[in-house]
Write a structure and sequence with these properties.
The complex is a heterodimer.
Chain A: H1 2-16, E1 24-25, E2 33-34, H2 42-71, E3 94-99, H3 108-117, E4 128-136, E5 141-144, E6 162-171, H4 179-183, E7 189-191, E8 197-199, H5 209-213, E9 220-221, E10 228-229, H6 235-238, H7 245-249, E11 255-259, H8 266-273, E12 276-277, E13 289-292
Parallel strand pairs in A: 3-13
Antiparallel strand pairs in A: 1-2, 3-11, 4-5, 4-6, 7-8, 9-10, 12-13
Chain B: H1 2-7, H2 10-33, H3 46-53, H4 62-68, H5 70-78, H6 86-90, H7 94-98, H8 111-117, H9 164-171, H10 180-183, H11 205-212
Helix pairs in contact in B: 4-5
Classes of the chains: A alpha+beta, B mainly alpha.
Chain lengths: ~300, ~250
């Protein structure tokens, strides 16, 4: 109805050329009122030109400080973290993708992790490990991880019928909002700007608050130093441009590693091509380990 | 200021002095106890990031291996193991890169291979797996398979390489002398892609009748039945297990 009326008005204005221009109301019905240009007098036209000129000038003025700033040399900030060969954490944001449907549960990742990071060989000390999920007919999940899967798995038959079974590699999720960092009373757990959560071995007092705060059970107390230990995404490797050891050795490419905010990164493609899930998303920790083809039973 | 100070009662002056002393002691203790680089980049000790970043790298990465061992790399990158990094089998190699006198291990037994290739129901479908118990038990894997270019060998010499359970059962049955291929015709592709190229199976009673019918033209001593009278509504293998016929009798 409204539209029809406007169109009628327009036609009337143009065809009849009446002396006083009829206001044309926007079809949205808002209060802006335009006048048909044919009926504008010269003064009105000049006013608009002024307005456009002023607008151009003011926007140009607004850009001046920005342009001046761009010409200046960037001063190195003494408080900006630069590691090794000019690695700047603030320019990176790391993430890992894990494809459940590719994992064969060989445990090479857990083994390589222990070699790379000098993790004690005894069971129960793991920075990364692989869990086997077996979903029973009644919906229950049987989860096991003998020696973190370093010696792979035995067939180990169950009495109940299994309807689905798969492997889930686990590690520290490098949360964007890490609960472990929040609870550390001495500031030994911290998050670097590139999103990796690290532990200061010399500063940790071994109170193990963080072990309890971690919803993913990704931390452990080192039996000798009695300090908290966890996956660092192999921080000493990624600052040198290498991938974490577990990603390097994964024989089926179930693990993908890369930058979260660079389009060329393999993880961007991984996240686009797969159905992505994270562990315990309801906790709002914003994990940066992303699982493809994740079963709802995995926690 | 001094006037104000004189106005204070004696005990308040002492209290203020003690308080100031306490604050000074706290500041001194804080100065010595907290590392200087604490809070440099954030709420943590700045030096610790550098310490962690400077830890020793143990896995050199496949790109480094390929630099020297390009001959093996060429073979490997064309085969099924192209995505298996060298250090998966040979162990961390950064030390070997620095000093070639430090030799890496080359696994010769079966232990390492079966970590990936042992049959597990949880493994993704299509991943090549074997039951190591019945797959040429005493032979090391590398006697038939080149780990750098792992193709299934020409043919597993016997069907028992994969079907060990059946082979063992059959070996002490009356059918021990009957070749597998007498009943099952397998195409050569079955040895490469077993699931996509299934061997044939007997379909009719008449197949068993070739030996067991009363008028069968075979040697004496084979049990005979009257094919027309003997349980005509069923196929033979509903009652007799062909790999262990009439077990226990």
């Amino acid at each position: 109805m409204m539209n029809n009326k406007i169109i009628n008005n327009k036609i009337n204005n143009k065809s009849l050329n009446t002396e006083k221009p009829e206001p044309i109301i926007d079809s949205a019905g808002c209060d802006s009122v335009r006048y048909d240009s044919e009926h504008n007098d010269a003064g009105c036209d000049a006013g608009r030109r002024n307005f456009v000129n002023c607008a151009l000038a003011s926007s140009a003025l607004m850009m001046v400080p920005g342009m001046l700033g761009a010409g200046e040399e960037e001063k190195p900030d003494p408080n900006e973290l630069v590691l090794g060969d000019g690695y700047r954490p603030k320019d990176h944001k790391w993430g890992m993708g894990i494809d459940i449907s590719k994992c064969i549960g060989c445990g090479r990742c857990a083994d390589a992790c222990k070699s790379e990071n000098d993790v004690p060989r005894e069971p129960f000390y793991f920075r990364t490990w692989v869990e086997r999920y077996r979903i029973l007919e009644n919906g229950e999940a049987v989860v096991d991880s003998p020696n973190g899967a370093i010696d792979s798995f035995d067939e180990d038959k169950l009495d109940e019928r299994i309807i689905r079974s798969f492997f889930v590699p686990k590690l520290c999720n490098q949360c964007e909002h890490p609960p472990c960092v929040q609870v550390c009373p001495v500031g030994a757990s911290y998050r670097v700007e590139d999103g990796v959560v690290l532990v200061d071995r010399d500063y940790c007092v071994g109170c193990s608050y963080c072990l309890q705060a971690c919803p993913y059970g990704a931390r452990f107390l080192h039996p000798e130093t009695r300090t908290a230990e966890k996956c660092t995404f192999c921080y000493h490797r990624i600052v040198k441009g290498l991938v974490p050891a577990c990603v390097e050795v994964c024989p089926t490419q179930a693990r993908i590693f890369g930058e979260m905010e660079k389009k060329s990164s393999p993880i961007i493609r991984f996240m686009r091509m797969n159905n992505i899930g994270v562990l315990k998303h309801s906790l709002n920790t914003e994990p940066k380990v992303f699982y493809a083809n994740l079963d709802k039973e995995v926690r | 200021m001094l006037k104000l100070w004189k106005k204070f009662p004696g005990q308040l002056k002492r209290l203020i002095l003690i308080f100031l002393l306490f604050v000074a002691a706290l500041m001194t203790a804080r100065h010595f106890l907290i590392p200087h680089d604490y809070g440099q980049y954030g709420n943590y000790r700045g030096g610790s990031v550098h310490e962690i970043a400077n830890l020793e790298v143990k896995y050199a990465g496949q790109i480094v291996c390929v630099d020297c061992h390009d001959d093996i790399a060429e073979i490997k990158f064309a085969g099924y193991h192209k995505n298996v990094a060298c250090e998966v089998c040979h162990g961390p190699g950064a030390a070997h890169v620095e000093d070639s006198d430090i030799e890496l291990t080359s696994p010769r037994g079966r232990d390492l291979c079966i970590l990936c290739h042992e049959y597990l129901p949880s493994r993704p479908t299509g991943f090549p797996q074997i039951v190591s118990e019945s797959h040429n038990r005493v032979k090391p894997c590398i006697s038939c398979h080149d780990p750098h270019d792992p193709v299934p060998p020409e043919a597993p010499k016997e069907c028992s390489a994969c079907h060990g359970t059946i082979a063992r059962t059959k070996s002490h049955s009356y059918h021990a002398d009957v070749e597998c291929v007498y009943c099952h015709q397998a195409s050569p592709e079955h040895k490469v892609n077993p699931r996509e190229n299934l061997p044939s199976k007997p379909k009719t009673r008449d197949f068993c009748g070739k030996c067991h019918a009363e008028d069968a033209d075979v040697e004496f001593g084979i049990p005979r039945v009257d094919m027309d009278a003997h349980e005509k509504r069923y196929v033979c293998w509903q009652c007799h297990y062909p790999h262990l016929p009439e077990a226990g009798q």
